[in-house]
Amino acid sequence: MDTLADYLKRTIVKEEVPSSLLGEPRSVKVYLPPGYNELLTYPVLYCQDGNDFFTMGRIATLTNKLILDEGMEPIIIVGVSVDRSKRTSEYSATGARNHTYKQFFAEELLPYMEQRYPVRQTAQGRVLAGDSLGGTVSLHLALDYPDLFHGVLSLSGAFFQPTLERIGQESDLSWLRLWMVVGLQETAVETHIGTFDFVDCNRRTRQALADKQAKVTYVEDAGEHLWGFWQRMLPDGLRHFFSGLYFK
Predict the structure, then answer these.
(1) Is residue 29 a contact partner of residue 13, using CB atoms and an 8 Å limit?
(2) Among 166, 136, 168, which residue's Cα sits nearest to residue 152?
(3) pLDDT value at position 246?
(4) Is 55 domain-assigned?
């Protein structure tokens, strides 16, 4: 039986990804799994709000536990940092920096990581993860770059009208895999751009995706629009993508 000390032992490497598109480097944290071996290749999870996933989501400890206790496939996690003052601009579908950020992700971040780490370089081997607006930009990245990303793990995604319109532009999303969760207490979430019913938004998005043949696993559970809820649900999302047959 693995001990708490085993779960808390983790290798996290800090990197600065140069970017001509953003005009400045972007900090990332890279989690390497127990037994990491550069001769192997690993599925990779790219997280928006990277610092939050590591600190409030405790994703390194949770992933260690799943690998050590449940035999989940070892993965590499890339947590991409964000400047809070630019977050909405980069993550919102209508944000001024949204297009540039997505371009950075596909054209600069991925090649940088794939030159330095033994991550799988296939659309099936990459999963995008995000909470709230991080879920939004993750889904839009997959829709804009279907040759790069086939999996999205969404924690209470902020899926507003522009996202529904973007899904509507697609004719066939049978290649797309989503794991979505939303908290039942998220019916009046106050944000700096208004108050939103995230349960309704996620239900509508789930239906829009299903109408286009995307494969969606959708979960509603007691919870608020907070990391306490997302941390509790995160292991199920990780299991969905990295246990079983998803990568076979």
Answers:
(1) yes
(2) 136
(3) 53
(4) yes
pLDDT confidence of residue 191:
84
Mean pLDDT confidence for 9-34: 95
* DSSP per-residue codes, 100-123: HHHHHIIIIIHHHHHHHS-B--SS
Sheet containing 177-183: order of strands = 11-17, 26-32, 76-80, 44-47, 126-131, 151-155, 177-183, 215-221
- 158-186 b/e (C-beta count within 10 Å ≥ 16 → b): bbbeebbebbeebeebeebbbbbbbbebb
- Read off φ and ψ for residue 177, nearest 5 degrees: -120, 130
Q: Give the structural domain span for 201.
A: 4-242
Residue 212 per-residue DSSP state: T
pLDDT value of residue 72 = 96
Q: What whole-number distance in Å separates Cα of residue 246 and Cα of residue 223? A: 27
**Residue showing tokens 């290749």:** 41
Rounded Cα distance between 197 and 188, Å, is 5
User: For the residues 153-180, what does the mean pLDDT come to?
Assistant: 98
- pTM attached to this predicted model: 0.95
Q: Which residues contact 131 (CB under 8 A, 6 or more apart)?
A: 48, 49, 52, 53, 57, 155, 156, 227, 230
- Residue pair 153/109 in contact by the 8 Å Cβ criterion: no
Residues sharing a CB contact under 8 Å with residue 114, sequence separation 6 or more, in sequence order: 121
Question: Number of folded domains in the chain?
Answer: 1
Closest C-alpha to 181, from 215, 214, 135, 150? 135
pLDDT above 70 (res 248): no
Query: The CATH number of the domain where 193 resides is what?
Result: 3.40.50.1820
